[in-house]
Amino acid sequence: MASRNDVAVSPGAGNVGRDSARVEISGLTKRFLTPAGEVFTALEDVSFTVEPGQFCAVVGPTGCGKSTTLSMVSGLDRPSEGSVTVGGREVDGVADGVSFMFQTDALLPWKTVLGNVLMGPVFRGVPKQQAQASARDWLRRVGLTGFEDRYPHQLSGGMRKRVAMAAALINEPKILIMDEPFGALDVQTKAIMSTELLGLWEQIRPSVIFITHDLDEAVALADRVVVMTSSPGSVKAVFDIDLPRPRGAVQEIRFQPRFIDLQHQIWETLREEVERAYARTAGGTA
Amino acid sequence: MSTTSAVSATLVKGGAPSSAAATAKRAARRRTALVWAARVGLAAVVIGGWQAFTTWGIVDPFFFGQPSGIARRLVDLFRNGTEFGSFYANIWTTIQEALAGFALGAVTGVVFGVTLGQSRFLADVLGPYIKMVNAIPRIVLGSIFIVAFGIGVLPKILLAAVLVFFIVFFNAFQGVREVDRNILANAKVLGASQMQITRHVIVPSALTWIIASLHSAFGFAIVGALVGEVLGAQSGLGLVIKTAQNNFDPDGVFATMLVISVIVLGAEWFIGKLEHRLLSWRPPAPSEANSL
Prior knowledge:
The complex is a heterodimer.
Chain A (H helix, E strand, L loop, with lengths): L1 H8 L13 E11 L5 E12 L4 E5 L6 H8 L7 E6 L2 E2 L7 E4 L11 H11 L4 H14 L15 H13 L5 E5 L7 H18 L2 E6 L2 H7 L2 E5 L6 E6 L9 H4 L3 H29 L1
Parallel strand pairs in A: 3-8, 3-9, 6-7, 7-8
Antiparallel strand pairs in A: 1-2, 1-4, 4-5, 9-10
Chain B lengths: L1 H54 L5 H4 L2 H14 L6 H32 L1 H16 L5 H9 L4 H24 L3 H9 L4 H38 L5 H10 L3 H29 L7 H5 L2
Helix pairs in contact in B: 3-11, 4-5, 4-7, 4-9, 4-10, 6-7, 7-9, 9-10, 9-11, 10-11
């Protein structure tokens, strides 16, 4: 399976040393103690693999522990059982080479656009001049030249996302973790941002784990779609998306028959979980 | 047809805004004038009423002073000084004490607040004690400081610092607690060390809270310095007030009060400037943005 994916994925990407970007999630379980003193299982025995340079989307109903999974992959949180290994090394604590893009803005409101993008290199101790040059370069790549001195509150939602994207990619991460990064954007901006993300991803080819509610977005962007069950979250099915790359504009790929076919298959699997999750919340409020 | 409508639209666009802007500007000017007239009027009524009531003997100026008497006393103070040196020297003593106490209290407050805000363990251990210390009337500590350190400037500085410390401390602590979790996680993932997180994320975030507390904190620094001086001093505005009280001289008390409020207003203005500078990244408040 891995080899098949490599064939589908690899044109253009240098594969030297890329194995360090394989993410293996095995038997991941996370339990929380609720304030009432009960044990709540958020994740149960989640296992899936993201091959080096692969774009993996995770879809699932609300509250199925998708974000919890990501926080354990990034090392912000520890699993109760099971493990996450990145490039063969078990994750324990925040590691180098991982970037995270959040659903809400994680930009520092007191820093300018340039200052925000600079953070990654500065935290890593890159000399100031070099860091600035690379920050300017990344701002150019996301189309924000001329906005270096603005503050985040002076930008539109889409522009803020671009800054976040530049800030996440400037360290050239091996692994890029995205938690519904475009969830709060309007549909048109979202499509544009998705296309831009694909373009940037093809330049540096990190392994991506991308959480979304939007099945269309998942199929259009990803090489592999992981469907999770409703709470406690576990992996229900994994689909490999064999749409050719480069895929170009995200808006247009939706009309290809193969896209519709795949989208339909995945939705069949997902629907049951979504309905179950919905019934639970509806039952809970009634 | 479409062209004519377009032309008329541009005409309207070209003509309307300038006259609308002029009307809006006139309205704004009129409002400013009205506000100032009302302000001056209010001051005239209060001060004039005070003067009138004391002149007519309805209120006894022996106890409550008289605006004209206060003005005379003020001039006298500045011209002839007091029994313990010139008035300026006394003002300077109080300002020095308040400033030193303010600086000491604010710095320790920020350091403790930021440290405890980041450490759950320390916060849990020290929390109850800090609450207890906060509950006692700290102004009484002035007596202890004077007994321990004499009647020089040190006890006044300490008293002012203690009062300032708690205000700044609680705000800094709360400000650190309110740091956005996402921003914190993001900085961690980007590889920030604990020092870098404190410097780039936590302190700037808490600064909004800290600066807000500085406004009221300076008032407390002055209160600490004055109370310390009233309790025992060789110079300072608190001593001037105490002497005036002993001489049954309400005008002297009011005159000194006036000077103190000018000092506090000056400090307030300065802190406002500082706030503007340090927090320039903040979006303008809605009232500021719409106030045309």
